[in-house]
Automatic annotation (TrEMBL):
This is ATP-citrate synthase/succinyl-CoA ligase C-terminal domain-containing protein. Keywords: Nucleotide-binding. The lineage of its organism: unclassified sequences, metagenomes, ecological metagenomes. Residues 2-92 form the ATP-citrate synthase/succinyl-CoA ligase C-terminal domain. Gene3D superfamilies: Succinyl-CoA synthetase domains. InterPro entries: SUCC_ACL_C (IPR005811), Succinyl-CoA_synth-like (IPR016102). The keyword Cytoplasm does not apply. The keyword Electron transport does not apply.
């Protein structure tokens, strides 16, 4: 709903469900970036069973395979959030904890691109 509020569309939605591993996240990212129409990736992680640090490790591991012209933003909330934020910060990717701020960041990045 927030993406539509800012006139943004959605190409893919991926539900990682519980127990996602860094390897699964990296594979999912590689599938998404095969679509040449993808201009940005917004990760909205609300971790309960799914741990934010595990998702962050997968994102960090896949960053080098994401073309530079694809914007990446992250929202982490839930289990091991602070560790996940630290992992992403180590690879120069900021993570918000507020969904609307994350959406504003992808909108801004897409409008610059």
């Amino acid at each position: 709903d927030l993406l539509h509020k800012y006139n943004m569309g959605v190409a893919n939605i991926l539900d990682l469900s519980g127990g996602a591993t860094p390897e699964k996240v990296m594979r999912a990212i590689k599938v998404v970036i095969q679509d040449k129409d993808v201009k940005g990736i917004l990760f909205n992680i609300f971790g309960g069973i799914t741990r934010c640090d595990e998702i962050a490790r997968g994102i960090a591991g896949a960053l080098k395979s994401i073309p530079e012209d694809i914007s990446v933003v992250c929202r982490l909330q839930g289990t091991n959030r602070d560790e996940g934020i630290s992992i992403l910060k180590d690879v120069n990717l900021d993570a918000d904890t507020d969904l609307e701020e994350t959406v504003k960041n992808i909108v801004s990045a897409m409008n610059r691109g």
